[in-house]
Design goal:
It is a single chain. Strands 6-7-8-3-9-10 form a 6-stranded mixed beta sheet, sandwiched between helices. It has a 4-stranded antiparallel beta sheet with strand order 2-1-4-5. It folds into 2 domains: 216 residues, 3-Layer(aba) Sandwich (Rossmann fold); 74 residues, 2-Layer Sandwich (Alpha-Beta Plaits), CATH 3.30.70. Helix content is 31%, strand content 29%. The radius of gyration is 25 Å and the shape is elongated. It is built from 10 helices and 14 strands. It is an alpha/beta fold and 301 residues long. α3 packs across α4.
Length: 301
């Protein structure tokens, strides 16, 4: 595993910010880390990078305990923090060369910098001072510096802030490409961003992991008691008769002979029986899954 958190807890000013976090993330996973403000996302990321100490639990990066191996684990991690601290008076190439030297990169340093400039789409702005760049291009500089050490783990805190739609798609594609052979943890408030980039979703609330969805395509409200089904009949029906099916609690008409049925359980069999008894045909019957937005609101409310 690239990342292992076992029983991680953290207090700041006597406030419990993280409470017994248990987490494993493997290579090739692009994980969306979601949560409301103050949930503990940034604290977790800072602990992983070694910039924030922890007292309780274990934090391992590529098999090494962060607390005992800060230099070694730090060299395996590329980090783009939310506020993206840069030196505005330095030129783009100058800054990337400075960061490369802090990583003690000597051989092929110039070629590596040029490769990253092209990779993140900075070619047209690389001759400028960082302070002259737009916010979107500053994000690209931050992403380039995070990739300089060729890290095994990439931690991105709000990486697409300030990007226009074209830049956004380019950076999304880059992160997806990076995720093929690296572990990527991406924190964002934009749920659409998670859908577009990630293959796994973690939701944190009040310092605790409240949900872990290994497959983003199958997110559903697994714990909700009431389920919803969309059904479409061939012919007109008597709605009052449909409402008499015992498991159905609410019938909502959304089109001609088309309804959303709220129910306490699976209603496939009783609805088919109803259609047969009514001398009707079912054109469509499917469960309506909860959206990511619905999941997020429910778990962090």
């Amino acid at each position: 595993m690239s990342i292992q958190l076992n029983g991680l807890s953290k207090k700041i000013d006597n406030q419990l910010v993280l409470n017994n976090i248990q987490l494993e993330v493997g290579a090739g996973e692009v994980v969306g880390f979601l949560g409301p403000n103050g949930a503990g996302k940034t604290t977790t990321m800072r602990i992983l990078t070694g910039s924030l100490p922890y007292e309780t639990g274990s934090v391992c990066v590529c098999g090494l305990e962060v607390r005992k191996n800060r230099l070694e684990t730090g060299a395996m991690i590329g980090y783009l923090p939310e506020n993206n601290p840069l030196y505005p008076d330095m030129y783009v190439r100058e800054y990337l060369d400075f960061v490369a030297q802090t990583y003690r990169i000597k051989s092929g340093r110039k070629e590596l910098i040029e490769e990253l400039i092209e990779r993140v789409g900075l070619q047209s702005e690389a001759h400028k001072k960082i302070g002259q760049l737009s916010k979107g291009y500053k994000q690209r500089v931050g992403l380039a510096q995070a990739l300089l050490p060729d890290p095994k783990v990439l931690i991105l805190d709000e990486p697409t802030t300030g990007l226009d739609p074209n830049q956004l798609e380019e950076i999304r594609q880059l992160i997806r490409e990076i995720g093929k052979n690296k572990t990527v943890i991406l924190s964002t408030h934009i749920l659409q961003e998670v859908k577009a980039i990630c293959n796994r979703v973690l939701i944190i609330n009040k310092g605790e992991i409240v949900a872990d969805y290994p497959d983003i395509l199958k997110i559903n409200l697994a714990d909700k008691k009431e389920r919803q089904f969309e059904v479409e009949f061939l012919n007109e029906i008597d709605v009052s008769e449909l409402q008499r099916i015992s498991q159905i609690t609410v019938v909502s008409e959304i089109g001609k002979n088309n309804f959303v049925l709220s129910a306490d359980g699976d209603i496939a069999e009783p609805v088919f029986d109803f259609a047969v008894q009514s001398n009707n045909k079912i054109l469509k019957l499917k469960e309506v899954e909860g959206s990511m937005e619905e999941v997020f609101r429910k778990l962090t409310r």
